[in-house]
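Human: If only I could read backbone structure tokens as easily as an amino acid sequence. Take your time, and here it is.
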Amino acid sequence: MQNSIKVSVIVTIYNVDAFLHQCISSIVDQSFKEIEIILVDDGSSDHSVHICEYYRKSDNRVILIQKKKNEGLVAARKTGIQSASGDYVIYIDADDWIEPNYIENIYNEALQYGVDAVFPSHIRDFLGSQNIISNNIESGYYDNKNLKEIILPRMLSFGQFFSHGITSYPWGKIFLRKHLLKFQLQVPDDIVMGEDAALLFTLLPTLDSVYISDLAGYYYRQRPGSMIKTVGNYNSEAKKLSSLFQFLSKNLSVYSVNYDFNNQLMDYVYALSLMRIGSKSNNNENTISELLRHQNFPVGSKICLYSSGSFGQNIYTNIQKSNGIQLVDWVDEDYKESQMCGLPVSNIDHISSIEFDYVFIAALDPVVVQAAIKKLISLKIPKDKITHISFDKKIIIHNISNMGFCSDSYHYLGN
């Protein structure tokens, strides 16, 4: 008997009642009707369950699974996909939403090209301000040969430091259930940093064909609170990252000879560590401070920090603690977003009125760095005053070891 459910839509939910109506209603109202909607409540303590119950009672396509306690995203996704019966699966985060014809469009692309997965673009929404985020690899159909020759060598690192070929999130993408099920179940429940990357980057090398799409109908909600990067206990954070790195290293090692995943993973480890853990707070060593020392700033230098993303916030925190250099301002083109989050960031266009010795570009993507250099030069900033992180592989290996990670296995050795 032919399966009448073509697509299983899985929404994992934990205390998001403020956004849940918009998310679920956008799925219920899809033009494509041959779907099941699996809502997995991961032990919410707010009104999320009541909202789910409302939709379960009003639409027989809605399946509600309630977990007694919060077990985390990975475990919730496993629960959802083990209950799914559709030919294809789409994950949707509970604070996001989709356009009315999104599932129809992405499902039709999967059928048209006969692929295992479709990787679309998505729309980032920050308090109503929206921009499209696309994959770095060119859109189009990739058979097994092109998948191996074009996508996999640039999967984790797109020929540039910390620039993925494919966006690392599984949400919004569509996968054949049989492929996604196998690899979702392999991700350990205790991976609580990089859960998306652990799934996507171990699944992708096993697929036969994919379609990279220009479709952009998935809205990713960037909440102000999520833009503020807080760094917890160094050892605790490092151990969480180590679980991710070891899982990726182990599962990608069988392909490394052909796709140089070791170098790709090294870039990924270093960049993610700089964003997520930053410095060693329980002794005198400080990774960010050492990184800044590689810039050879003279003692007493006045620094203007450019960029307020995750890495920029980490640099800002550590410059404040430094005795050798002085932070005189923090600037960005997206300064309004940063200010809405409570960060003391100024308009980059005012940089000419600031007295400084150097501008440090706090970005990890060389493409972003080059764009920032171009912007600064257009504002009449002398090139010898512009500096940024080193992308030298020897320095990267040294700093990974200095952070306490084994550079071969990425096991965290501690301080």
Remarks:
- Residues 296-389 form a domain with the Rossmann fold fold (CATH 3.40.50.720).
